[in-house]
Amino acid sequence: MVEIDLNRVEEIIGRYEGEEGVLIQMLLDLQSEFNWIPRGVIARISERLHIPKSQIYRIASFYKAMSLSPVGRHVIQVCLGTACQVRGAPRIMDRVKESLGIEEGETTQDMRFTLRRVNCLGCCAMGPVVVVDGDYHGKVTPSEVEDLLQSYK
Ligand code: FES
To answer: With contact defined as beta carbons under 8 Å apart, do 111 and 70 qualify?
Structure first.
């Protein structure tokens, strides 16, 4: 279970209390602070601002800049498209999962990494491809995975 600093949540909500039309900005501030918006935070906003939870969920799900599930400081995308698969991508994915102790779609407990699977990034000749925070790493081998992860603190 990912821990959230509730004092920070209260502080951010408090910045906007009593003001009209601040929900989106408040959610963006919370997103920027925690990298995601947990269920409990939505319940707290709803209580303090007297806004139905359903309305808050609707907004948080609509904006791509907001996430309702934990997202780590670094997002790793391992390509498992056909060309990358043929070049060994499943072994890269296994090594990343093993090293981080998480499955696809999950985030590490320390909120350092989120692991995602993608299907073709349009640079098949570089396969197998791993993208971390938008940086493309091509022709990755299983033995390089650990160093690659270590380079993202
Ligand atoms: S299949 Fe991986 S980049 Fe195309």
So the answer is: yes
**What tens digit of pLDDT does each residue of 41-73 get?**
999 999 998 999 999 999 999 998 899 988 999
pTM of the model: 0.77
Q: From 77, 78, 79, give the residue whose CB has the most ligand 1 atoms within 8 Å, as the site to mutate.
A: 79
Provide the pLDDT confidence category of residue 116 given band limits of 50, 70 and 90. Answer: very high
Query: Is the C-alpha dihedral spanning 66, 71, 73, 74 positive or negative?
Result: negative
Å from CA of 86 to ligand 1 middle: 10
